[in-house]
Automatic annotation (TrEMBL):
Listed name of the protein: Oxygen sensor histidine kinase NreB
Transmembrane segments: 14-33, 40-58, 70-88, 95-114, 134-153
InterPro entries for the chain: HATPase_C_sf, HATPase_dom, His_kinase_dom, Sensor_HK_TwoCompSys, Sig_transdc_His_kin-like_C, Sig_transdc_His_kin_sub3_dim/P, Sig_transdc_His_kinase_ChrS
Keywords, sorted A to Z: 4Fe-4S, Cytoplasm, Iron, Iron-sulfur, Kinase, Membrane, Metal-binding, Transferase, Transmembrane, Transmembrane helix, Two-component regulatory system
Ranges in a coiled coil: none
Organism: Actinoplanes italicus
Role according to the record: Member of the two-component regulatory system NreB/NreC involved in the control of dissimilatory nitrate/nitrite reduction in response to oxygen. NreB functions as a direct oxygen sensor histidine kinase which is autophosphorylated, in the absence of oxygen, probably at the conserved histidine residue, and transfers its phosphate group probably to a conserved aspartate residue of NreC. NreB/NreC activates the expression of the nitrate (narGHJI) and nitrite (nir) reductase operons, as well as the putative nitrate transporter gene narT.
The reaction(s) this protein catalyses: ATP + protein L-histidine = ADP + protein N-phospho-L-histidine
Cofactor(s), names only, from the UniProt record: [4Fe-4S] cluster
PROSITE patterns: HIS_KIN (PS50109)
Record EC number: 2.7.13.3
Residues of the Histidine kinase domain: 295-382
Length: 385
């Protein structure tokens, strides 16, 4: 639970408990009056009934004010009825009128709370015999002041809730970015190691094999040793190439880029229950491992954002091999982004940085309620480059 949640919980409990002090003070003032003992006992019983009524509906079931509005309208009507009985029996319970104002906002939602504020004057008016002076003070002064105060409190609560949601969103984005950054760091280090092995050991072994195959006219035992050396060099070169392959990202270990992205889409659909289609256009060609890793991570990250932010019913992923570029398009039918789309957030910064390292580009097209389309374009760099 966050600090904001704790503060909201304390405030809500404080408002829910606020009628009890006023009810207790009014009861004590009533008991100090000159009423008959029997009348006092009946008044205390009604006051106790009002306390139990409030406890059952608001304190014992704190979820009801939000999820059962009509039940709470009945609860508030019961409060006003009991308060009317108490005020008719003793003027001391006029002290409870402010509590009725508070309970209108505690138990009633939206504009109904303001109707409840007006209704909160009924017990006092009934007790006073609908005195015009009392009605003017209650309806013309007290009720507008209570409405203004209640509106201010609700505005503060909405702002607190908005900040809580923003904090949760920031925490989720931060955790996701940290996860993606960790994956990116691992992938980059593995790619660097693969390049180093390819450019040093693999190239050296290739040169050795070439030189050994160029040797001819060697008789007898020397020929056997050269054949053994050539076989050993070839075997070592095969091992090195397998090691380079093992350093590729997980989904790319046993598949090419298109198959890896298709498998990513299928896995994402299976895990999160959001239908997604995969389409490939053009003729697939072997590309550099950096290009494969970048496009695979772009697909994973963009689908992750669709799941977390878009509220989408479906998504469509397209991988297009063109003459000199490869384009990855991810489109969803979700709620879309504000116009213009933000340049930061939702992992876009990390994605742009990764793509920019290959001299590629990322574009985002979206509008509220019309879904989002993310297009990642990178140069088509061959596998042997």
């Amino acid at each position: 639970m966050t600090v904001v949640d704790e503060q909201l919980g304390r405030w809500n409990r404080a408002w829910a408990l606020s009628p009890y002090p006023l009810l207790a003070v009014a009861t004590v003032v009533c008991l100090l009056g000159d009423a008959a003992p029997g009348d006092r006992l009946v008044t205390v019983a009604v006051a106790a009934g009002l306390g139990v009524w409030h406890w059952w509906f608001v304190l014992a079931h704190p979820q009801w004010p939000e999820h059962r509005p009509w039940i709470n309208a009945g609860y508030y009507a019961g409060v006003l009825a009991l308060a009317t009985v108490l005020m008719v029996r003793s003027d001391a319970f006029q002290l409870f009128v402010p509590a009725c104002y508070v309970l209108a906002f505690v138990s009633l939602g939206g504009r109904l709370a303001y109707a409840g504020l007006v209704a909160a004057n009924l017990p006092g008016l009934v007790a006073s015999g609908f005195d015009p002076d009392s009605a003017l003070i209650s309806l013309g002064v007290a009720t507008p002041a209570a409405a203004l105060f209640g509106a201010m409190i609700r505005t503060m609560e909405r702002e607190a809730v908005r900040r809580r949601e923003i904090n949760r969103e920031l925490l989720a984005v931060s955790a996701e970015n940290a996860r993606l950054a960790k994956q990116a760091g691992i992938a980059e280090e593995r790619a660097r190691m693969a390049r180093e092995i390819h450019d040093t050991v693999a190239q050296g072994l290739t040169g050795i094999v070439t030189q050994l195959e160029a040797v001819g006219g060697v008789p007898g035992e020397a020929r056997a040793r050269l054949d053994a050396a050539r076989t050993l060099a070839r075997t070592s070169l095969d091992e090195v190439r397998r090691s380079i392959e093992a350093l590729r990202p997980g989904p790319l270990q046993d598949a090419r880029l298109s198959e890896a992205i298709e498998q990513t889409v299928k896995t994402w659909t299976r895990l999160y229950g959001i239908p997604a289609r995969y389409t490939m256009t053009g003729e697939p060609v072997p590309v550099h491992s950096e290009v494969e890793v970048t496009l695979l991570r772009a697909a994973q990250e963009t689908l992750s954002n669709v799941r977390r932010h878009a509220s989408a019913g479906q998504a469509h992923v397209t991988l297009s091999y063109m003459e000199d570029v490869i384009v990855l398009d991810v489109h969803d039918d979700g709620r879309g982004l504000p116009s213009p789309p933000p340049s930061t957030g939702f992992g876009l910064t990390a994605l742009r940085q990764r793509v920019a390292a290959l001299s590629g580009s990322v574009s985002v097209e979206s509008s509220p309620g019309a879904g989002t389309a993310v297009s990642v374009t990178v140069p088509l760099i061959g596998a042997g480059s």
